[in-house]
Amino acid sequence: MRSPLLPIFLTIFVDVFGMTMIIPVLPFFAQHLGASEVVTGALLSTYAACQLVSGPILGRISDRVGRKPTLLASQFGTMIGFLVLGSSTSLWMLFLARVISGATAGNLTVAQAYIADVTSPENRTRAFGMVGVAFGTGFLVGPALSGELAERYGYGVPGLVAAGLSLLSIVLTSTLLPARKPLEVPPQEGRLGAFQRMFQRATPRRRLLEFFFFSLSFATLTGGLSFYLQRRFSFTMKNVGHLYAFSGLVGGMVQGGFIGRMAKKMGEHRLALGGFVLMMVGYACLGALFTLPALLAVVAVSSIGSAVVRPALTTLLTKSVGPHEQGAVLGVSQSLSCMALITGPLLANSLIGRGELAAYGIAAAVFAAAGVLLGAQPPPAEITGS
């Protein structure tokens, strides 16, 4: 691992640890405050709707003023959002917390751009795979801990702990992350212009579409998973947290131990295609699950799939443009991810609210199938020097 990457990985881990702490709790918290499944879906989508506005802006700002100050500003907003969430006593406060967090949520986009700055194209998949390890480790510890805390001490406690972790990430970024000179980038157009510029070119368009369907499939799954597990298996918050921990363990093992070698042997294109197939198969089986061993098997398969798709596609995205467009293309990809995170939870919770648990899994599988269809086409050209 190159020396500039260790601080960013530590920062990402602490950020993800904090963010994952609220994943299993938030739907139950909203339900406790009187929200229906549809309203809960809207709550989950609010974060992404606000992030949709801020993502490309933060990407361009980080290109101009540097990654470190942009990351610090984003982390500060995240901390405030968690504080409001942890203090919430009514549904409108939960919505306010998600608005604040979403409007300042640029942590991952900026961190990915930083990694793209300091790694060569041939080593980038391994570097992004280590980001996946940070995610997997965060999912391993964060949700399990939050379920325990919420059931013992109250729904708001995980949010307050997450705020403390956000403060720690600010300290780590301030003291450990080397500041890099901002790239000399030409004046860039607004968000719509960035979309138009990327989608007019075949290579970034293809990769962005693949990333969108990955995000939509994954967002549909995770957006409804807590209520699916509650209805099908009578899971509590603690049980949901433990399942997320299992998923994080599987994903972390894949990304930490195998992703670099797999990418060099198979190439990112085939790696992403295989991951999409595993996601599609796993999600399609959700409606037929009635036992815990079957659930764990399906979660393992789909977790392996998503664990290889994310770093492979992120690398392919950064290879599809020149070095001065890294922040822009990752900002556009973040916007597409936000669109998926708006749509997926609304769709998932609407289906689950009507008792259509099988349709919920099929919907996530269909979106993964779109990724399979795109990935089955010949790979487009890359800008290998990016």
Automatic annotation (TrEMBL):
Cell compartment(s), UniProt: Membrane
Chief localization: membrane
Protein name: Tetracycline resistance MFS efflux pump
Keyword list, A-Z: Membrane, Transmembrane, Transmembrane helix, Transport
Bilayer-crossing regions: 5-26, 38-58, 70-89, 95-115, 127-145, 157-177, 208-229, 241-259, 271-290, 329-352, 358-376
Species assigned in the record: Chondromyces crocatus
One annotated GO molecular function: transmembrane transporter activity
Similarity field: Belongs to the major facilitator superfamily. TCR/Tet family.
PROSITE patterns on file: MFS, SUGAR_TRANSPORT_1
